[in-house]
Each structure stands twice: as C-alpha cells, then as structure tokens.
Amino acid sequence: LKITGLEKIYRTEDIETMALNRLSMEVKEGEFVAIMGPSGCGKSTLLNIIGLLDDPDAGSFQFNSIEVAHFNERKRADLRKRNIGFVFQSFNLIDELTVYENVELPLLYLGIPATERKQRVEEVLEKVQIMHRKNHFPQQLSGGQQQRCAVARAVVNKPKLILADEPTGNLDSSNGNEVMQLLTELNDGGTTVVMVTHSEHDARYAHRIIRLLDGQVVMENVLS
Ligand code: ADP
Ligand code: ADP
C-alpha cells in the first residue's frame, strides 16, 4: 500500500472536518502494521479508504501498484472482494446464518463451486478451531468464538490483506490474545495485516506502529 498526500474532508451543513490531512504512509507486502491515535484522529476514515469502502478527496493510493484513489464503487468492490478480509470490533456476523454459512458467504459472492467451497470453509474452520461449532448460530458462541468465526470469514477467500478494526475491543484478555495469535499466524503465512487499535499490548504484535494525530502521521515505531 502506498499512500501519498491523502485528504478526506467531511462536509456537514456548516462544518468542514479535515479527517485526513495530506497523510502519507506505506505498508509493504507481508508487513503487520498497527495504527494508533486518539479518538477522532482519522483512523476509521483511513481504514475505510485502505479497505476500498470509501474514496479520498485528494492524494494518491496505490494498492498492489495500481492507482485506486479514483476508482468508482464498482471497481473498488471488485478489488475489495478478491483481495481484502475485514475483522471488526463487533464481529459483524449474520445472526440468521450458522458459523459454516457465515464463513461460506464470501465464497458464494465470488462464485466458487460447491465442492471447493466446502473444502475451503472446513479448512479455515479447523484453523481457527471452531469446526465443532460449525452448525451453531453466532448467538450460541462465546465472544472469542464469534471473533474466531469472523477471522475465518475474513480469510476464507485467501486475501492478500487483512484489515482489523479494534479486533479485541469486545474480548477479555485471554480471548483477545488468541485472536492476536491468529492474526500473527496469518501474517507469518504471508498475509499483510493492518490493524487499528487502542491497545499498546495488541500493537506489540505488529512490526511497526503508525501513530496519527489530526489526520496526519506524527510518529512511527519499528518493533522487532
Ligand atoms: P477515529 O477513527 O480516529 O476516531 P474518524 O476517522 O472516525 O476518527 O474521524 C475523523 C474525523 O472526521 C473526526 O473529527 C470525525 O468527527 C469526523 N468524521 C468522521 N466521519 C464523519 C462523517 N461521516 N461525517 C462528518 N464527520 C465525520
Ligand atoms: P464467555 O466466557 O466468552 O462469555 P460464554 O459463557 O458465553 O463464554 O460461553 C461459554 C461456553 O458456552 C462457550 O463454549 C459457548 O459456545 C457456550 N454457549 C454459550 N451460550 C450458548 C448457547 N445459547 N447455546 C450453545 N452453547 C452456548
């Protein structure tokens, strides 16, 4: 990811908010980066743009060496579905679908044939250790199990990039550590991870911490 001079301005009635103020940063393939900063500094706005959910007002954003800053919604969605897995603080599972069905959904969207779907869903449920829960609904799972299911859904289409927004925000420390361990394993397998977090503890799983203030990068810490 190569981001240069990114700007995002929200206009509401009479107020203009410069959420991203000529922000520049880079994330290399295979890196694990944590983004930190106080509430309102632009973390969610940045993650939405990196995740191709929203577009910037100015600046350049290269994804895999492709300039995507001016992509329309259809082109963004196409790139997003094939390349990016999302993990949210609130899990965002569909309550009416079982664990298995939740994880299968991204593969249905991509039109993957049934036999391959089954094989890939089962492989990833084994990996996050909730195979024994595949026919349960999200509400029947503990928070940690729900987040492991959400991670399974995020990675079932083998994305190059995982975007995690406060992935342990609703978990106790033991379940939180399990989810961080899982993200680390996926990163060890070559997947790039970009995570927004308020937790200095979680940030230490990353290779690098990028700190934002008022829509700009103000500090970077390289970890071991
Ligand atoms: P963070 O995730 O770091 O808390 P955000 O990216 O959510 O920060 O917000 C950055 C700034 O943009 C804040 O001042 C916020 O109030 C403003 N903002 C975010 N989304 C909107 C929106 N949809 N409309 C207006 N202002 C917004
Ligand atoms: P936590 O400590 O994370 O809050 P819970 O007390 O919610 O965990 O759950 C403990 C165990 O009971 C978990 O393995 C969970 O899957 C199981 N469980 C919780 N609620 C239900 C339910 N309604 N049906 C089936 N299993 C459940």
Automatic annotation (TrEMBL):
Pfam families, alphabetized: ABC_tran
Record-level Gene Ontology MF annotations: ATP binding; ATP hydrolysis activity; transmembrane transporter activity
Keywords: ATP-binding, Nucleotide-binding, Transport
InterPro entries in the cross-refs: AAA+_ATPase, ABC_transporter-like_ATP-bd, ABC_transpr_LolD-like, MacB-like_ATP-bd, P-loop_NTPase
Boundaries of every ABC transporter domain copy: 4-224
Domain of life: Bacteria
Cellular component GO terms held in the UniProt record: membrane protein complex; plasma membrane
Cited SMART domains: AAA
Family membership: Belongs to the ABC transporter superfamily. Macrolide exporter (TC 3.A.1.122) family.
Listed name of the protein: Putative ABC transport system ATP-binding protein
Organism: Pseudarcicella hirudinis
Organism ancestry: Bacteria, Pseudomonadati, Bacteroidota, Cytophagia, Cytophagales
